[in-house]
Design goal:
Length: 129
C-alpha cells in the first residue's frame, strides 16, 4: 500500500506483517498494532475519460472486419461501435487511518487491500468489546 500523505511523508510503503500489525517502511520502521487504530475511512474514486488510442485501435480493427462483411456501411457502423471502446475507466481507493497517538496516514490501495484494512479495524473493535 502506497503512502500518499500523512505524518510519515509520501512515497513510503505500509504493509501488514504476520501479526496483522501495520508496518510503515522507511519511517524508522514504525509499527502499529490493530489496537492502536482510532479510525479508518475509505473512499473509492471512479474516473472515466476518453482515450483516443483505444478508439483508434478499436475503429481500425472493427472497420476491417465490418468492411469485409458489410462493405462501406460496415465502416460507419464500426466507427459508431468503436466509440465506447475509447473510454478508459480508472478506480483508485484512498484510505485514511488515524492512530491513537494522533498521527495519520493516507494510503492509495487496491480494493483487496482496502478490505483487509477495514477488516483489521473490525477485528480491533471486536477485541475491545
Amino acid at each position: 500500500m502506497k503512502i500518499v500523505g500523512g505524518d510519515f511523508g509520501d512515497n513510503r510503503i505500509l504493509s501488514l506483517n504476520e501479526n496483522n500489525d501495520l508496518v510503515i517502511n522507511g519511517a524508522g520502521g514504525v509499527t502499529y498494532s490493530p489496537e492502536q487504530i482510532q479510525s479508518i475511512e475509505a473512499n473509492a474514486n471512479k474516473e472515466k475519460r476518453f482515450g483516443i488510442n483505444g478508439f483508434i485501435v478499436g475503429a481500425v480493427a472493427l472497420s476491417v472486419l465490418f468492411w469485409i462483411f458489410f462493405g462501406l456501411p460496415g465502416i460507419i457502423v464500426a466507427l459508431v461501435v468503436a466509440f465506447p471502446c475509447g473510454y478508459i475507466g480508472n478506480e483508485t481507493n484512498n484510505v485514511n487511518i488515524l492512530f491513537k497517538d494522533n498521527k495519520s496516514v493516507n494510503l492509495e490501495c487496491s480494493a483487496e487491500e482496502t478490505q483487509e484494512l477495514l477488516q483489521l479495524a473490525d477485528i480491533e473493535k471486536t477485541n475491545q468489546i
